[in-house]
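As a warm-up, study this chain.
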Amino acid sequence: MNHKPFVSVVIPTYNHAKLLKKALDSVLAQTFKDWEAIVVNNFSTDDTVEVVNSFTDPRIKLLNFNNSGVIAASRNRGAKEANGEFIAFLDSDDVWYANKLQKCVDQAQVGNQFICHGELWINSDLTTRPVMYGPASRATYDRLLFTGNCISTSATFIAKSLIDSVNGFDENPEIITTEDYDLWLRLAAKNPRTVFIPELLGEFHRLAESASSSVIRNFTAELQVLNKHFATQPQTISTKLRIRHRRAIAHYGAARQLTTQPKQSFSLFASAFCLSPFVLRIYPGLIITVLRTVLGAKKP
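Now compare it with the structure written out below.
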């Protein structure tokens, strides 16, 4: 009988050959060795296949799969092929520290089903910021829905049976970029045993500041996820107010990312205010946008 690993690492990728090598190197460097890595390649046109084949470790497997631009489909395909009791997702532009899997396995072996840890965010200008996700009190269904996401995909370690119980990621193209948030919500509704490890166990590499179109796309996708879950909520007055408040938070978040596009930013801040003037972050965010706009206009 073939040995089944305890952990399956699922790595979706497309044209990230150089970064993928670093990601795979970080998996090979793990102190915990009972794993398999499934690279789900969306028929990359760069050297992705050559990079994967350069690793002679039989635990690393290459799966070529056309996801039609939906990364959720690649993650689902990888999860379907997984033999491990737990699945750890790793984006091909991120890396893990050597003790990441062991720390997560330790938590799994005491009964936890959903495990997450902190990451070091590395920006395109090489500035860094440590980010701790969670805590568990913020990862309940209600808190995730009404206060926002507090989980990162490359920092998760989840029981395969739990993922299977909700049929994995939603592959709806309308929620691309927020399909992970939707999954966390559906998993949280199952009330899994959840723990957040208060340690930095990986690096999340952030691209340069998003273009306006990308911010709006992500914002629209977030609203789609919210609408999907709000439809299941009781339509009481208090819940309707909470829904307006949450939508205001989403508008505020998009507005803050568009400070270099003042017209769009001001419009979103105005919508956030109309939805809920009690989102106090709106006011300093609006002031910062105004100052940037004024100072930018004064430059020769």
